[in-house]
What we know:
By secondary structure, this protein is of the alpha/beta class. 46% of the residues lie in helices and 15% in strands. Helix 2 (39-48) links the parallel strand 2 (31-36) and strand 3 (56-60). Helix 1 (16-27) crosses helix 7 (213-225), helix 3 packs parallel to helix 4 and helix 4 (103-130) packs parallel to helix 5.
Amino acid sequence: MNALKKYTLITGGSLGIGRELAHVFAQNGHNLILVARSRQELDDVRTELSSTGVDIITIEKDLFNPGAPFELHRQTTEQNLYVDILVNNAGQGLYGLFENTNIDRELAIIQLNIASLVVLTKLYLQDMLAQGGDGKILNLSSIASKSPGPWQSVYHGTKAFVQSFTEALRSEVKDEGIVVTALLPGATDTDFFNKAGMTDSKAVQDKSQLADPAQVARDGYRALMNNADMIISGFKNKVNVAMNNLTPDDLAADKMKQQQKPADS
C-alpha cells in the first residue's frame, strides 16, 4: 500500500449526514473515497467539493449486497489507496409494527447496518494496524442505540449492535494507536424517514425539531479528531439519553411506542 497519500473513506457519502461529512473532511484537507449506490449523486458531491483541492474518488457500490464490502476493500487495495480514516455512515431503517413489516427488507437492513459495517471495519482496521497503527474509525450509531424502539424495532436493534461493537472495539485497539468513535445523532433532516416509510410518524411531524445534518457532521468530525469515545449530537438528544438511562427498559419502550406511532392513530 502507498501510505504517503492517505484517504478518508465514507460510506453513504452522497446524501444526508454522509454528504455533510464529506464536506467537513474535504474542507479540512482530507482526500476522499466516497461510496454510494447512485453514480449521479456521487458525481454531484464531487462537483460540490471540487474547489477544496483534495483528491476525490467515487465508487458506486451497493452495500446491501453481502459481497460488496469485500469488493470495495479489494478495489481500494488494488488501486494502492491507503484508507487511514474509515467512516461507516451508510444505514437505513424501516417503519412499522414488526408483525407487519417485510422480513426481506429487514434482513437487508441488518446486512447494511451491521454486516457490511463489520466487514469494512475488520478489513480496514487490519490495514491500519499493518501500517503501524495510525488510523481512525467513525461509526454512525444513533440515540436509537440507547433505547428499545417500537415501530422501528429492527433499526433500533441494529444501532444497539453498532454502539456496543464500537465501544468494545475501541477498548481492544486503544493501545495500538487506533481511534474508534461513535457518532449518535437523533432525528435529523435527511431522506432517512422517506426511505424508512416513516413520514407519518409522530416523531417527525415537526420538521423544526429535526437536527441540521451539517451540524451533526461537524460534531462527529470534531469528536473523532479529539479521540472521543462517543458524541451525542445536540443538547436535546443528550438530555433524552440521560433520561432514558434512568428509565427502566419496559417504560422506555412504551414511551418510544407513543412517540413513534402514526400521527393519525
